[in-house]
Structures are given as structure tokens and as C-alpha cells.
Amino acid sequence: MTKKRAKVAWSQVCLPKEEGGLGLRRATECNNDALMRLLWEILTNKHSLWVSWCNLEILKGRTLWQVVPQQSFSVTWKCLLRLRTLLATNLVYTIGHNSSWSLWHDPWFQSIPLRERLGDRAIYDSGLPTDATISVVQQGSLWNWPLHVWQLRDINSACSNISFGQRDSIGWRKVGGAFSFRAAWTSLRSSAPVVTWAKVVWFSGAIPKHSFCLWLTFRRAHLTRDKLQSLGILQQSMCPFDCGQQETIDHLFFECDYTKTVWSKVMELNNCPIPVAWNWDAIVTWALGHTIGRHFQRWMRRAGLAAAVYHCWRERNNRIFRQEAVSTNLLLARIIFDVAKKAALHLCIQDTPSNRALVENWEIGEAIFCQPSGNQQGAAQSGHTSASML
Ligand SMILES: [Zn+2]
Question: Rounded to whole angstroms, what are the CA distances from 220 to 3, 83, 215, 252, 253?
């Protein structure tokens, strides 16, 4: 098996799209979600055969937090017990009057069981039983800790902020919060800052392979020849478009004479002014400011950018790996074909002078214009759903 270099780290791929990933879920995180669900069912004592079995065979009158892992436990149970610390950080305990939560074992105080925090000696010194419930340190609406143990004096002062509720309850992430896979995944998964370019890459009607290629470009993840040379895989990094320059992301998109010609024609079709700077950072700045939004012209700019990047990258690969080359005019024809076909199939726009100008430039059929009535019916008959745009 050959070891291939990943263009983007798996942890990054598994981020949501708005955080710069592809929105995949890591198998380990999905598995943890499912296990959390089981733990939640035990904690809330759900009426199910499995929970009843666990109470009878594993817990045997103890709380989940008291169980000590044993060799004889199933793999599932060993995994469940390992997740208790993570589980505790997601739980919000409400302490009722005369509370029956386990004083020392349940993680009701700052998500860590007191036994773990204080140790057995402090519990022994307190004179309270090891199976005590919180009710033993409650007196009316006040806390009543044995203050001769110094650690408990600290707990007592920290508890002064915790008031009692009507009854004991447990919530997921908030008071009364219910468990859901989505909420669990959101709170358990690794996260990253939101990326501003996600809406340029992922949008309704986008062509998936174009979006994917554009996503790699925004992440600067394409294995361009300058990268391969720095890794020692290639001896030289000359641009495959025979311009005599080094191949970098900035050069390919779109400083190279070949790709610059293609991109300037796409800009022309979209009635956009010709850019002053052609490197990728300049394209990103332009895209963030001029392609996001609900207007048809913005959709066309996004689709045009994605198609230009995709076809230029594909042409670059064809030249390197297949020794095949096409002219900028033929490449532009492919871009127009892809974008016009997708727009015609996916969109339904208003007949305004600026929209009509773009439709004519890109040679999109008249059917893209919304009809005053019967439009939805027409869309349904043609077997696709149209997105209405301004
Ligand atoms: Zn070049």
C-alpha cells in the first residue's frame, strides 16, 4: 500500500463547512455521540430493557459514577465508563430540596465528583456516610456543610451561589436541556473559527466537483509544483503552461498568462471590471466582497469563479499527466457550458436588464426567467426544483 500525502488533515476535513471543512463527521465522534446517548438513558433511567438490565447487572444499586471498571465488563461498558469525564462536563445538575443526588459521587459540583476532588480522607473526616445524598448538607433553603474539615469550608463558600430548585433534575448543557445527537455532536466535536469564504464555495446550485476544487484552493491545499519541489518530490517547479514562471497557487490563480486570459474572459462575461491584482489573495478579497448574496449576478460570479478554478486546474493536470493541451477559447467554452447548463437547470430569475445582459453573455436559455404564473408547475414538470433569485 503506497502512502499518499493528504492534501488537508482529516481533522480539518471533518469540520462543518462554515468552519472550513467538508462537513463530514469523524467516526470516533459519531461513536461517542451514540455512547453518550446510552449514558444519558442510564442517567435519566429511561424505561427500556437495556437500562433495566444495566441497573440489575452492572450498577447494582450504585450510581453510574460509582462503578469501577472491571476486566469482565463488555467492550461497550468499558467505553461507556471511559466517557464519564466527558459526559460530566456536558451535564447541568439542578439540586432539589431534599436532594437525592449522591453527595460524593455524582458530578453535580463543577462537573467533578467531590470524592475525586477531595479524596477519601476528607470524606472520612466529615463524618458523613460514603453513600450520603446531598440532602444531608441541606437545611431548608441553605447549605449546611460540616465546617470542621477545611476542604468542605471551601466547598461551602463555593456552594453559596447554588440555590435549590423544585426537584432534582439533569439537563444536557443547560437546565432542562434534552439530549439530541445534534446537540451532543456540536458540543463534543472539535471546532474551529468560522471561515469567511464558506459561502463563496458552498451554495445552492453549486457544481459539487467545482466546489470541491475551489475549497482546496481556498485552503491552499493543491499540490502545486513549488510544494512538491520543497518536499523533494520534484526537481523543478516550472509552470506547465510554458510561461517560464514557477508554479504556485498565486501563479495558477490567476497570474499565469494562460489562466489570466481565461479569468479575465469570465469576468467580462459577468460584466465585472478587469482586476488590478491577479494573485489568489486578491481574488479572495474580490470574491468575499463581490460574490456573496442572493442576486443572480452574485450567483453567476460564484459559479464562474468555481468553474474557472476547476477547469484551469484540470487543464494543468491534463498537461502534466496526459500531455494534452487545449486553447484558452476551448477552456472558456467548457466553463460557459457548465455554468450556463447549471444556471438554466437550477435557477429561476427575474427578467431585469442586468439579469438579461448576463443571460445573453453566457448564452443561457430564456426559460431561466420566471413566468408570472405557473412557474412552479413548469419546474415540477421539467423534473427539477428551481431556486428563485432576484
Ligand atoms: Zn504559468
Answer: 21, 36, 8, 11, 11
